[in-house]
């Protein structure tokens, strides 16, 4: 016969030795969790500043056309067409700057007041055609539509 205590007794419960092992395990896990807990600070209202973990150069996050873009000076990006009369070579200014990192991080709530990103319009174009087909079998229903989304290609000239 084995001298080890079984995991369960006749009543379906655990023996006191097994229960003591589980309690020891539980307290050990709890103390390890307490040691690795990181304190969370309350959020500050308004723009907040923090040290940047790495400095790869100045960048900003802007919002335009319902999307957000991370931009650097000299970078070319495709954005949604902006309403208005524009031609290639025009300069654009984006006022909705959400974040700027120039050695220290500045976060806007929701935007940074006075911050601007300047860009030059390089190209006005349209993306390749997207074909949309609606079809219902056995009812002679077939609709086919095509769509080309316009875009602006801009080069970022400055982050202020």
Description:
By secondary structure, the chain is mainly beta. The strands form three sheets. The chain has a five-stranded antiparallel sheet with strand order 1-7-6-2-3, with no helix packed on it. A four-stranded antiparallel sheet has the order 4-11-8-5, with no helix packed on it. The protein has a two-stranded antiparallel ribbon with strand order 9-10. It has one helix and eleven strands, in the order αβββββββββββ. It has one domain. Strand 2 and strand 3 (67-72) form a beta hairpin. The radius of gyration is 30 Å and the shape is flat.
Name the helicity range.
Answer: 10-25%
Helix/strand order, N-terminal first: HEEEEEEEEEEE
Shape: flat
The value of Rg in angstroms is 30 Å
Helical/strand content category? mainly beta
Q: What spatial order of strands do you see in the largest sheet?
A: 1-7-6-2-3
The total of beta strands comes to: 11
Q: How many domains, as an integer?
A: 1
Number of helices: 1
* Weakly predicted, low-confidence segments: none
| Largest beta-sheet details | 5 strands, antiparallel
**Which whole number gives the mean pLDDT?**
82
Termini Cα gap: 82 Å
The proportion of residues in beta strands is 35-45%
Give a brief outline of the structure.
The chain is mainly beta. Helices cover 12% and strands 42% of the residues.
Quickly list its features.
1 helix, 11 strands, single chain, four-stranded antiparallel β-sheet, mainly beta, 160 residues, five-stranded antiparallel β-sheet
Outline the secondary-structure elements.
Elements lengths: L15 H20 L12 E4 L7 E6 L2 E6 L3 E5 L10 E4 L2 E5 L2 E4 L9 E10 L3 E7 L4 E7 L2 E10 L1
Antiparallel strand pairs: 1-7, 2-3, 2-6, 4-11, 5-8, 6-7, 8-11, 9-10
């Amino acid at each position: 016969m084995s001298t080890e205590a079984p995991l369960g007794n006749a009543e379906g419960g655990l023996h006191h030795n097994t229960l003591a092992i589980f309690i020891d395990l539980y307290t050990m896990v709890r103390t390890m969790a307490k040691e690795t807990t990181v304190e969370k600070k309350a959020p500050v209202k308004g723009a907040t500043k923090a040290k940047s973990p790495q400095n790869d150069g100045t960048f900003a996050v802007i919002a335009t056309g319902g999307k957000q873009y991370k931009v650097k000076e000299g970078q070319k990006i495709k954005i949604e067409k902006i309403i208005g009369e524009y031609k290639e070579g025009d300069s654009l200014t984006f006022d909705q700057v959400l974040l700027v990192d120039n050695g220290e991080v500045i976060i806007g709530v929701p935007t940074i007041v006075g911050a601007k990103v300047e860009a030059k319009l390089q190209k006005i174009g349209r993306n390749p055609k997207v074909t949309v087909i609606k079809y219902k079998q056995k009812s002679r229903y077939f609709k086919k539509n095509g769509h080309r989304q316009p875009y602006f290609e801009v080069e970022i000239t400055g982050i202020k």
